[in-house]
Design goal:
679 residues, alpha/beta, 9-stranded parallel beta sheet, 9-stranded mixed beta sheet, binds beta-D-galactopyranose
Length: 679
């Protein structure tokens, strides 16, 4: 478990003193405090306020502001400004710029147009961070540091010259010899063999955009490695200068980055930026039946896998919109509160709104904060105040762990392979979406569990059931861990194409499920995508229909294993589609297809983890349920994302943290309403 940074539920906001006339600072801080905001995040884009010209450092501006914060009792998270290199820097040292795949350099004017690898950028970032940390590291107003801003946001591909140079170093460390690199990347195919390291580059333009898949997989690993190193470099500097108890964080959650490793090696706590209003884009047809803003819960589940007691560094408080894209409506009355509670329901102990006041100029002038340009009190500030009051009522929840019925297992090899390999992507996306939806509709909360080198058996045994949908890439370490989990009594559920590949991304020359065959009691005899020319293939399980969508592995069971379901059509009608194999005190269920909401309902029911609170509460599919527990107390959060009221039924009386005692019977949640009950 991560450290508990926020002993009570804490409210914050993002503030940009450099955007406002100094005469506003004092009243802003006082109004924030009055609304219940006790922490602000500042500084993350303000490099020029510290180093307006190369090597000339000045601290007056933030000294003035931070001293005011101290005077007003406002706590501060200070951001290192490395996401926005100054114009003087990129003009003089263009090698620090990121490039598009064709080598064209990105230019000054937005943000995140730099790379993580040019020695010059690393040197200048180290210098500015050192200067800032030396000067402000012990400032009494500062309680935490944010490294950079949203590493890998805007852009998570890097094609600068320095990236190719660093990629070669990364590959030499990994492979030692070119022969080994050629083997791993299968360069004999289409005559791609390298005879000198200088011939190796990050991806470059090709005839139709496709790349060598093994190279691509290593490239994503390299991008993650570079971002982690960039973060670690800053963390190391900060740690030399900051006081005891001051924490280091960064805000995510973005692709091509092993957030788990980064957090473990560099951070005290991880934070997420939650913008559920992205669910209501104006430039796309709206899907009324989709989960919409409720889908942000999926990212929150992933965030708590990185850090169980996380914070929200940027919580949506107004409508979204750059002047050029991403337009969205203003959150409806109640939505700001609902999304804040959504974050808390999934494990956040800190919720900080983006941003205090809407900027009245530049790219984000329609990305609304709590206040509008006119700076008057408004209904969103009123809601923030109310969230502050609610946080007091929800005090017992601070530091509580999530309570999940099962875990969805992931690892970065398969996440990234699933991004670049179309076969893998199609099944992975379908199944992970199905797991989320099935969990939501059946009120069966789940955690995500990433298999990392540090993962222990104890991390797995917290869950009676693990679903590892399509681990195409298996390693002996991960397979052994899963075997130990099953032997001690766990239930492992896997889907099609498990064990198809090795860590290089080569298809192994042995039957699937490869390294897991020892525990699945299955062999894959043949396999195919479901044909668009045939009716959907299903299977029969105990006389009932079992969905077997997207892709079908045709299974055989080894002695001791039991065929639970057989395909009902296509050329493999009658063949095994679902096999159960007892192992030690546990079992493995091998489904030959992708997962769907419907087959997951059956599998979760079969394994005894479906709807764990159905004896206490009945909810419609339209309400979300999450659970947190602490010191033997369990708190259920019920959230209504819809614009109309919805009801739930308590089968016995319960205590609401908001409304006191709730008798057994039907209760109504208004539009965008929520309830928190202790059971
Ligand atoms: C976040 C970013 C903020 C702000 C916000 C709205 O991704 O961290 O700085 O840009 O989006 O666009």
């Amino acid at each position: 478990m991560s450290k508990q940074i926020w002993p009570t539920l804490t409210m914050g906001t993002c503030y940009y003193p450099e955007h406002w006339d100094e005469s506003l600072w004092l009243s802003d801080l006082r109004r924030m405090k009055e609304a219940g905001i006790s922490v602000i995040r500042i500084g993350e884009f303000a490099w020029n306020k510290f180093e307006p010209r190369e090597g000339e450092f000045t601290f007056d501006f933030f000294d003035r502001f931070l001293d005011l914060c101290r005077q007003e009792g406002m706590q501060v998270i200070f951001g290192t400004p490395t996401a926005t290199p100054p114009a003087w820097l990129t003009e003089k040292y263009p090698e620090v710029l990121n490039a598009f795949i064709d080598g064209t350099l990105m230019r000054h004017g937005l943000r995140k147009h730099h790379n993580y690898t040019s020695p010059k950028y690393l040197e200048l970032c180290a210098r500015v961070v050192t200067q800032i940390a030396r000067h402000l590291g012990r400032h009494p107003a500062i309680v935490g540091w944010q490294i950079d801003n949203e590493l890998n946001c805007e852009c998570n591909t890097f094609y600068a010259e320095s990236d190719s140079v660093a990629f070669r170093v990364f590959l030499r460390e990994k492979y030692g010899t070119l022969e080994e690199l050629n083997r791993s990347w299968g360069t004999v195919f289409w005559n791609q063999d390298y005879t000198g390291w200088d011939q190796v580059y990050v991806p470059r333009p090709t005839a139709n955009g496709s790349q060598n898949p093994h190279m691509e997989l290593d490239y994503i690993r390299f991008v993650s490695h570079s971002a982690r190193r960039f973060c670690a470099m800053q963390a190391e500097i900060l740690r030399q200068h900051i006081g005891e108890g001051v924490y280091i964080t960064t805000n995510g959650l973005f692709g091509h980055l092993d957030n788990h490793a980064m957090t473990r090696e560099s951070l005290d706590v991880y934070t997420y930026d939650s913008y559920p209003n992205f669910a209501f884009p104006l430039d796309q047809a709206f899907n009324h039946s989709a989960l919409n803003d409720r889908s942000w819960s999926r990212s929150l589940i992933e965030t708590r896998s990185v850090c169980p007691h996380f914070g929200i560094m940027e919580q949506q408080s107004g409508s979204n919109g750059w002047h050029s894209r991403m337009e969205g409506p203003m959150p409806r009355p109640g939505q700001l509160t609902l999304w804040s509670i959504q974050s808390i329901a999934h494990g956040a102990d800190f919720v900080s709104y983006f941003r205090w006041r809407t900027c009245n100029f530049s790219t984000e002038m329609y990305w609304h904060g709590i206040l509008n340009y006119d700076n008057r009190d408004n209904r969103r500030l009123q809601e923030v105040r109310n969230v502050g009051r609610l946080m007091k009522q929800l005090a017992p929840v601070a530091g509580a762990d999530s309570k999940a019925a099962f875990a969805l297992v992931r690892d970065y090899d398969n996440q990234w392979d699933g991004e670049i390999d179309m076969w893998h992507r199609r099944i992975q996306q379908a199944s992970e979406q199905a797991v989320f939806e099935a969990s939501q509709y059946t009120h069966t909360p789940y955690d995500m569990l990433y298999l990392q080198p540090e993962t222990t058996l104890g991390d797995l045994t917290r869950y009676p059931v693990l679903i590892y949908p399509h681990a195409e890439i298996l390693t002996p370490e991960r397979s052994d861990l899963l075997k130990a989990y099953v032997e001690q009594g766990g239930t492992l559920i896997i889907g099609c194409r498990t064990g198809q590949k090795d860590p290089d991304g080569h298809c192994v020359m042995q039957p699937m499920p490869g390294l897991l065959a020892g525990i699945t009691g299955t062999q894959v005899e043949d396999f195919t995508f479901c044909s668009p020319a045939e009716p959907p293939v299903t299977a029969i399980w105990n006389g009932e229909t079992l969905d077997t969508p997207v892709f079908n592995d045709i299974l055989t069971a080894t002695p001791g294993a039991k065929v639970l379901a057989r395909y009902a059509s296509s050329f493999y009608a009658g063949e095994a589609a679902l096999v159960e194999n007892p192992v030690g005190k546990g079992r493995v269920l091998h489904l030959g297809s992708a997962f769907s909401v419907s087959n997951l309902r059956q599998l979760l029911a079969y394994t005894g983890v479906l709807s764990p609170w159905q004896d206490i509460i009945h909810l419609p599919e339209g309400l979300e349920l999450t659970a947190r527990e602490k010191d033997g107390r369990t708190f259920l959060f019920l959230l209504n994302y819809r614009s109309e009221a919805q009801s739930f039924t308590l089968l016995k009386s319960a205590a609401s943290l908001i409304h006191g005692d709730l008798p057994a019977g039907q209760h109504t949640l208004p539009a965008y309403g929520f309830e928190v009950i202790e059971i």
